[in-house]
Design brief:
Blueprint: H1 3-13, E1 28-33, E2 41-45, E3 51-52, H2 67-78, H3 83-90, H4 94-111, H5 136-140
């Protein structure tokens, strides 16, 4: 990944300037580079002292795959490909892709507001089983309990 890709993620996460993900302070300073990804700029908050980068606090933080692989994975998920197909396209293991897609789905679901049903709610095709388990005689008599006498 190039430096341009990192600045893209910074611009999209903080369009009004970098802010601390812990305390939301705008008083930050550049603080070196990431230990494993030399292109990723690190920052330090003057308010709370937290050290962070553009992925801190997101579902993408702390993973070994580059950001471009995550974006490609998300794109392929949008095409409704299976984890096996995504693994083949990205030349990754199926278990790695499984972990990535779960993290992405969890991260996207966490951003959705909770569903709230109000007023009249209509439900179609509901199948309810009302307790014949362990009572095959009642099932044979089409719902009449075995001890109902007949």
């Amino acid at each position: 990944m190039t430096r341009g890709a990192t600045s893209w993620s910074v611009k999209h996460r903080w369009p009004d300037g970098v802010r601390c993900p812990r305390c939301e302070s705008a008083s930050i300073a550049r603080d070196g580079r990431d230990d494993t990804r030399r292109h990723r700029q690190r920052y330090r908050c003057a308010g709370c002292g937290a050290r962070f980068d553009d992925l801190t606090g997101t579902v993408l933080a702390g993973h070994h795959q580059p950001l471009r692989v995550w974006v490609l994975c998300l794109y392929l998920m949008g095409l409704n490909l299976s984890n096996r197909q995504i693994a083949q396209e990205l030349d990754l293991g199926v278990s790695d892709v499984q972990a990535m897609t779960e993290a992405l789905r969890h991260g996207l679901a966490a951003k959705l507001p909770p569903a709230r049903l109000e007023g009249e709610v209509e439900i179609d095709e509901v199948y309810v089983v009302a307790g014949h388990k362990g009572n095959p005689a009642a099932v044979a008599k089409k719902g009449v309990p075995a001890d109902a006498g007949g």
